[in-house]
Design goal:
Layout: E1 2-10, H1 18-36, E2 39-47, H2 52-61, H3 66-77, E3 80-88, E4 91-92, H4 94-102, E5 112-119, H5 127-138, E6 142-143, E7 148-151, H6 165-182, H7 199-202
Parallel strand pairs: 1-2, 1-3, 3-5, 5-6, 5-7
Antiparallel strand pairs: 3-4
Helix pairs in contact: 1-6, 2-4
């Protein structure tokens, strides 16, 4: 049986978190669809709030503590990434962006990505397409066409005539599952001795950031 590795990155700050709830719904549908096709799924979930200090230390010092390194390694080895962030001040959370900043620049190449976002009102939904999607495209990942935004009101019955949240989750998960199924990243080789930041920076900022 074929096995696919899925990584979930959730940058919600509260407990419980609607951001994590959306991530769980997305991976549940995606894993179910892959399972129906005879594909076994291994899932790893990383809550960025638990890694916040490690991410900051990495940005300052250029080295990842073990817990953060485990998350970075998991992303680099993944067959698919589900990335979900709350929207603050019209864009992704700072913690979310900081995590992306410490990922090896080549780690996301050809990686299928399902984007999710949460916010108080539907007016923030465009952030998926003007902020988050370009970020992953710049890093040569493959974000699926449907990004899933969940406003506070979307967790109700969806009876307002707009496509309901469960429908949007399923549509995004199906596009993601289709891409994960046909994407092969098994030949990726990571160089453990490569530097993801300029040597001058590691020596104290001798080169530009």
């Amino acid at each position: 049986m074929t096995t696919k590795k899925l990584v979930i990155v959730s940058s919600g700050l509260s407990t419980p978190s609607s951001t994590r709830q959306l991530a769980d719904r997305l991976v549940s549908d995606a894993a179910g669809l892959l399972g129906e096709r005879g594909i076994e799924v291994e899932v790893k979930v990383f809550e960025l709030r638990d890694l916040a200090h490690d991410i900051t230390n990495h940005l300052l010092l250029g080295f990842a503590p073990p817990k953060l390194q485990a998350a970075l390694d998991a992303v680099a080895a993944a067959d698919g990434l589900i990335a979900v962030t709350p929207i603050f001040t019209t864009s992704y959370a700072g913690l979310f962006k900081s995590f992306i900043d410490v990922i090896d620049p080549d780690a996301l190449t050809d990686l299928p990505v399902l984007i999710g976002a949460t916010g108080g009102t539907p007016r923030h939904s465009l952030a998926i397409d003007y902020a988050i999607r370009p970020l992953f495209t710049y890093l040569h990942a493959i974000p699926v066409t449907t990004g899933v935004f969940a406003a506070t009101g979307d967790w109700g019955d969806g009876g307002d005539g707009v496509r309901s949240l469960p429908d949007r989750i399923f549509r995004g998960a199906k596009e993601f599952a289709d891409l994960v199924e046909r994407t092969d990243r098994s030949d990726r080789v990571s160089d453990p001795f490569s530097l993801d930041r300029p040597m001058g920076h590691l020596l104290g900022g001798l080169a530009g950031e």
